[in-house]
Amino acid sequence: MQDLAAGEVFAALASSPRGLAEEEAAARLRSGGANELPPPRRPAVWRRFAAQFTDLFAVMLLTASGITFLAYALQRPQQPGTLQLAVAILGVVVLNAAIGFAQEYSAERTAESLQAMVPHACRVLRGGERRELPVRGLVPGDVVVLEAGDAVPADCRLVEAHEAAVGNAALTGESAAVRRTAEPSPGPLLGSRNCVFMGTVVAAGSARAVVFATGAATQFGRIFALTEQAPQPRTPLQRQVRVMARRVAVAALLIGTLLFAVRVPTGEPLLPAFVFALGVMVALVPEGLPATLSVSLAFGVRRMARRQALVKRLLAVEALGSTTVVCTDKTGTLTSAEMTVSAVWCGGAEHPVTGVGYAPEGAVSGPGAVRELLRTAALCSNARLVPPAGREGWRVLGDTTEGALLVAAAKAGLDRAAEEGALPRVAEFPFDSARKLMSTVHRTPGGGLAVCAKGAPQQLLDRCAAVAGDGGGPPVPLTAERRAAVTAADAALASRGLRVLAVARRDAAAVPAGAAEAESGLVLLGLVGMLDPPRPEVAEAVRACRRAGIRIVMVTGDHPLTAEAIARRVGIVRGGPPQVATGERLDTLDDAALEGLLARPGELLLCRVSPEHKMRVVAAFQRRGEVVAVTGDGANDAPALKHADIGVAMGASGTDVAREAAVMVLLDDSFASIAAAVRLGRSVYLNIRRFLVYLFSHNIGELAPILAATFAGFPLVPITAVQVLAIDLGSDVLPALALGTEPPEPDVMDRPPRSPREPLFSRALVGRFLFLGAVQSVGVCTVFFWHIHASGVPYADFTRETPAYRTAITLSQAAIVVSQFFNALAVRTDRQSVFRVGLLANRKVVAAGLLGVSLMAAISYWPPLQAVFGTAPLTAGDWAVLVAFGVLLLMAEEGRKWAVRRRAARPGPGRGAEHRAGPGRGAGAAGGGLPGKGLPGRGLPDKELPDKELPEKGLPDGGGT
Known about the structure:
It is a single chain. By secondary structure, this protein is α+β, with helices and mostly antiparallel strands. Helices cover about 50% and strands about 15% of the residues. The strands form 4 sheets. Strands 10, 11, 14, 15, 16, 17, 18, 19 and 20 form a 9-stranded mixed sheet that branches. It has an 8-stranded mixed sheet with strand order 8-26-25-24-9-21-23-22, with helices on both faces. Strands 1, 2, 3, 4, 5, 6 and 7 form a 7-stranded antiparallel sheet that branches. β15 (about 435-445) and β16 form a beta hairpin. α9 runs parallel beside α26 and α27 runs antiparallel to α32. The longest helix is centred in the last third of the chain and has 42 residues, at about 670-710. It starts with 5 loop residues before the first helix and ends in a 44-residue tail after the last helix.
C-alpha cells in the first residue's frame, strides 16, 4: 500500500476520491465486521462468583464455619445452637459474596454504558458528502478527513497531506511527531511516511486518507491481541480500608481469645466456650466492609454521571473530595464553545450583530456594507453548519471560529451553498501557526480567480496593500493613517474581550504557486469581533468553589485581555487587576521561581501558554502539596491530564486522546459539572466515614454487654453469637448500603478541602464511633441487667431456658437493633442537625432500618424463630423503653454536632470570618489557604504580594484555547 501513488490507492481499495457509496459501505461492514478491537476475555460468571470466596475475610469466615460444623459433629449430646451458629456464619459469607458479585457485575455494566455515552466519531466522505460517523462504522475504502488533535480511527493511506504530522508514540514509542506525505514511500509499513495507524495522533496539519485496515487487522489490533489485560490496581482508599479491616480482624481475634480465656475458668466446658468465642470473633469482623465500600463508590460514579461527569476510575471519586486547585481552560469549559460574532468593523464603522450561538437567528446592522466581507469569510472556511436533529440543536462540524463566521453570514442573508456554487474553490492554503492565516482560491463567474484570506489582524494587515473604502466603497490605498485606524479598531474590539479576525481579498490571474504569493497585495475588507459567551451556570459554580476553599486558575492560550474579560464575567477575577503571567514569562522562570509565582495570594491568569507550560504548572502545584484538577480538550493537553491528580477531559468537544488520558470526562464540557463532581466526591468520602461509624459503633454495643456480664460473674451471655450474626445479616448490611446513598450536606461546599494525608480511620472518626458505641452499650446493659434483677432470680440459678433470661437476651438484641435504626438516622450528617436536613429524608435508610426492626419483631414473636434464637415475646412497654433509648442516642449525637458547630464558629486561628473571607483561602479566592495553618502556598503575608505581571504587548491574533 505504501508503494502506490496516491491515485492508485483508490483503485487498489475499490474506492474513489468521493469515498464509498452508502450501500457499498454497508455491505463491507457486514462482511468485514465493525472497526473495533475485540473485547477482553472475561472469566465465566461462575468463576467470578467463586472468586468472591477467596477474600481474606471470606476465607476466615469459611474456616470458622467449618470449625463450628466440626464442633457440632463432635458434641455429645449435639447442641442445635452450634449448628445454627455454623449455618449463620455460612449465611454471612454467602450474603456478602452475593452483594460483592452483584456490585462488581453492575459496576462493570454501568462503566460500559457510560463509556458508550462518550462520543467516538470521525469525519468521513460518503458519496462525496462529508459526514460524521461512529468510528466502529469505518470500513476499508472509506475516505477519512483528519485534523490536528484527532486520533487516527483505523490504518489509513494518505492521499492528501497539508503540513500533517503524526505522533506514533502509542504504537512505536517515538515521542516526536513525524511529518507525513501523500507521496509513495517504499519500505516497511510501520516506517512508511504515507501511512497513519489506529491509536496514533494527528499532531499538526490536516490530511485525507483511505482506510485499508480496521479492527483487529490493524497494527494496533495485532499488538492488542498479544497483550494480556493488566489487572486493575487497587486504589489508595481501597488499600487503606483493607489495612484497617485487617487490623480490626486481629482485634476481633484477640477479643475472642480473651473471652475464651475468661469463660473457661468459670467452669464452662471447653467446646461451648470455644464455639461462643468463635461466634463473637466472627461477628466482630467487618466482613461486609469491602462490598459496602464498593457500593458507595459506584453509587457516587452513577450520581456523577447524572450530573454529566463520567468518572473512569473509582480513585477519582475519592480524590475529587480533596481537590484544592482547579486549572481550567477558558474556551468550552467556562464558555459555551459557541463562538458568536458580535461586531463587524468595515469601512470605518462598526456594525453590531445580534443573536447568540450557532442558530442563524439574529441580524447584522447595515448588512449591505458588510456583505462582501462576510461572503469572503464564509468562502474561506471549511466548517459546516449542521441543522437541528433529534435532541441536538444547531452545531458546527469543524472549527468553531469558522462556524461563527458562517452564522454571521447567514444573519446577513447569505446562502453559503449558493455562494460556493457561484465561486467554486480551486485551491487552499491551510492555516498554520507560523503564518496565522488561511487562504483559498475561487473561480469567479467571469472565468477569473479570487483569493479569499482570513487570520490574525496584524499578520494579515502586513500583507495588504489597500483597504475597503468607507461604506463598503471601492478600495483605497492602505496609508499609515488608515493602518492606524485599523489598528485602533482592532485594539478597541480586543479591549472588550473579543477575539478579532481580519478578512481580505484580491483578484488573481492564475492559481498562486504558494501561500506567500496568494497572501500578498490583498485588500483588507474589515475586522470581525467574536466572543465565546460564558456559560450561564458557571458563575454560581465558581462561587461554590470559592466557598469550598478551591483555588481556580485560568490557563489559556488566549490573549490576556480576552482571558480577563471572561474571568471577570464568571467571577474568577473580582476587584482589582489580577496577576497575569504569559507563556513567555513562564519560560524565564525556573522551577523555584514558578512555585513562588503560584504561591502568591491573589487571582492568577496564565495566558498565551502551551501544553508544556500547563504541565509545568501542574507539577509545581503538586510539589507544593496541592491536589490538582486540570481540564483539557486537545491532544496536546494529554500530558497535563495524565500528570494531574484529576485529569478532566471534554466529552463533547475534546479529542479522543484527551478523553483517553483523563480520569474524568465532562459530557457537557461545563465547568459547573466540575464543581458538582467535587461536591459529590466530598459526599462519597463522607458517606464512607458514616457507614464506618455505623458499623463499628454497633460492634461496641454488642461487645460491651458481653464483657460486662463476664466480669460481673453472670453465668450466661447477654446476647448469643447467633443473635449477633442475625444483627449483622438483618440490621447492618442494608442500612450501611443505604448510608452510601446519602446526598451531600448543605454545607459540604462551605468547608475547606480535606488533606490527602488525613487517614480514613482518623481520631475524629474513632472518637465518634466510641461515643455512639458507649451510648448504645449503656442502653443494652441497662435493659438486660434491669430485667435480670427485676426477675428476682439469683445469678447461679439462671439457665438458657429461664423465661427471664430469654426475655432479657431478646431485650438486648432488640435494643441494639432499635438503637442502630436511630444511629443510622443520626450519622447521616457530620455537623448539620439531622432535623435540618430532614429526619426521614433518606427513605432508603428509613426502609432499611424498619426492615431490621421488622426482622427483630419476627424473632421475638414467631415461634419457629423463637426456637432458633431462644427469644421471648416483648411487651409494648418493652418496646417503648427501647425506643426511648434510641431517641436518647439520637439526641446525644445531636448534642455532639451542636458542640462541633459551636466550636467551628468560635473566632480563632483558621476559623470564622477570616477563614471564609481572609487573604489565603478566603471564599476560595485565588490564593486559597488557611491563615495561620502553615499549609504550603497559603496565607502568605501581604508584604509578599508581587507587582502585577504585565500582559505581553501586541494584539490578539485569533488563536488560543
